[in-house]
Amino acid sequence: MKGSRFFRLIVYTLLFNSLFFLFSVLCSSLDWVKEDYSLSYTGYLDIVRKNDAFWYTRIAKEGYPEVKSRKDLGYSDKEEYHQSAWAFFPFYPILLSTASRITGLYVETVGVMLSLLFAAIAAWGFNLFAVWFFKDKEKAFYSTLLWIVFPFHYYFSVLYTEAVFFILLIFSFIAIIRNQMIVFSLLLVPLVLTRPNGLILLIPLFLFFLEQKGALEGHKINFEKLLDSKTILHSLSFLSAPLTFAGYCLYQYSMTGYYFAFSIAQDGWYREFMFPFLSFFRTGELASQFNSVYTILVMLFAVFIRKKMTLSLNVLIWMSLLLPLTSGSVISMQRYIVMIFPLFLIIGAYFYTSPRKFVVLGALFLLQLVSFYFWIANHPFSY
Questions:
Q1: pTM higher than 0.90 for the full model?
Q2: Which residues does 228 contact at the CB level (< 8 Å), separation at least 6?
Q3: Distance from C-alpha of 15 to C-alpha of 75, rounded to nearest angstrom
Q4: Distance (Å, rounded) from C-alpha 185 to C-alpha 172?
Q5: I want to staple 60 with a disulfide (CB 3.0 to 4.6 A). Which of 97, 142, 220, 222 is the partner?
Q6: Which domain covers residue 299, as residue numbers?
Q7: How far apart are the C-alpha atoms of 140 and 343, rounded to whole Å?
Q8: 77-99: per-residue pLDDT in tens?
Q9: How many domains does the chain have?
Q10: Which pLDDT value is given to residue 205?
Q11: Checking DSSP bridges between strand 220-221 and strand 216-217, what pairing results, if any?
Q12: Mapping DSSP to helix (H, G, I), strand (E, B) and coil, where does residue 269 land?
């Protein structure tokens, strides 16, 4: 049955990507799209390789650039700015580069193949966690489908880190559930090298670990189980993450003279640290207005469902929402939100009981096509 579900998820992933492709080709005839997507491999590549994908493929081919001054890392001053590859973490580019060398294929070709594979594995991971969460395979599978067709999920099928990061995160939770702490420790290494927030998400992971060990029940600590020798021994598995991150900081220092070059490089994207809620409605652009409203609605939903979640999952939700907002921008919040899988478990459980549950899936997929239009039209809303 597990193999059957995984096979079905692969089929659905390929089907949805095919529909995205055809939708893009059809939209090429529209004057306001300003892109000509051909019904070919090159056309598909033009669709999935946009925005940040440029940086990932560039790093995979050329590595990180030489830095002679702080400004080389990135800066912004009114309309003048400079961006650099140091803003992006290395695991995904390393993965692309390594796969390209092994197969002899172009980096972009490898990226396309891996994006399809990773999208299916991400859905499989979601389904495995959902089965554990619901103890109901059919409800879990429906929730997985809902997550796949939900607006903005297309980010999992392009040359971005969404699918890779999600796989590492969800299977870290699954490894804790299965008490596979060596596997868990190994997963943390690429997790912290894929995105800056990988290290911070150790907090909900550790809380989840304590919950599974019985050392954390609700908001109460069971000190007897907390101080149990097995709990202490297994908790050492978390050390791989800070050690890996420290190693990457040393690498950055050796290459740039700055331990946190990735953070400095964010200046090139006009990011500045501020209180999360001050990031809302800072500009009148569509992306800023929509993402502000969308994020606030998701926050209200998170408050509403808080009692349906354990402490660890609630912390995961709120850290995933608030951390990006500290950069002073709501840009990309729509793709950060689709990563917050606990939200979609609750949404899936709600619609699963509806007699029109499959109509809901169809409606959500149509909305995803609407959101995908901004991607193929190169609109800033897709950043």
A1: yes
A2: 213, 215
A3: 42
A4: 8
A5: 97
A6: 2-382
A7: 13
A8: 877 888 899 999 999 999 999 99
A9: 1
A10: 97
A11: antiparallel
A12: helix
